[in-house]
Structure formats: structure tokens, C-alpha cells
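Now read the record:
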Amino acid sequence: MRAGTVVHKRTGVGWVVVVLAATVMLLSGCLGSIDPDEVPGVYRNDKMGSELRLESDGTFAADNVTTDEQPADFHGTWEHVDNGAIGDFIYLTIEDDGLGLLAGIQLYPSGSDTVEFRPDPDGPPTPELTKVAAL
């Protein structure tokens, strides 16, 4: 290698950022704004029996949530991603191989107190979950 030559390496994290940015741009017409302080809570889809608990400490647990074909239980951490004019989403980092090879998934606002998973940017959202009142 010649002196002064710079070699650029793409890391796994770099590719994740590129994929996330592309996904967000594809879905920009569907996105809304999220107030991160309002995110924590319990979201349900009673018809499907799905529940998602987003805790204020940045952890989450999903029970009986269909993100592909089969309902699954998974957990991990969540973070609010602010994309300015494009729109916000919540990124769920899945721990302990909860969805096999899928390490993370995006959750998008779809109305007042309603969120939806978008496991496939080209496919339909599944499922839509609505925030329930605290007990």
C-alpha cells in the first residue's frame, strides 16, 4: 500500500445506519413525530392478543407480537430516533435471539397513541398497537 493511502472499512454499525436511513426515507410518507417522554407505556392489540411494554428505563418486552408470520415473544432495549423533517421512529434492539437473525425492528407512530411495526419496508404494517390507560 502506498504511503498516504487511506483505507476505509465499513463496520457492521455503519451498515446498520445506512439500512436504517434508507428504510426511513422509503417510509417518510408514513411517519409522524414522537414525543420521547410520551413513549413509555403499554400498547395492545386485543384482536391479536399482542402486548408491547415500553419502560421508561429504555427496556421493552413484547408478547405474542406478529412481526412476520408467527407470533413471538421478545425483549430488549428501545430508543427514540429523531429524524427531523423525515419523521421519528422507535428502534427496538432485540436481545437473546428473540426473532432469530433479526437484531432490531422499527416501530412507527400511526396516529394518536398508536404504533405499528414495519418489519418489511415494502410490506404492510403488522400489527397496529394502541396505548392503554395506566392502571
The two ends are 65 Å apart (CA to CA). The CA atoms of residues 37 and 109 lie 14 Å apart. Confidence is low (pLDDT under 50) at residues 4-31.
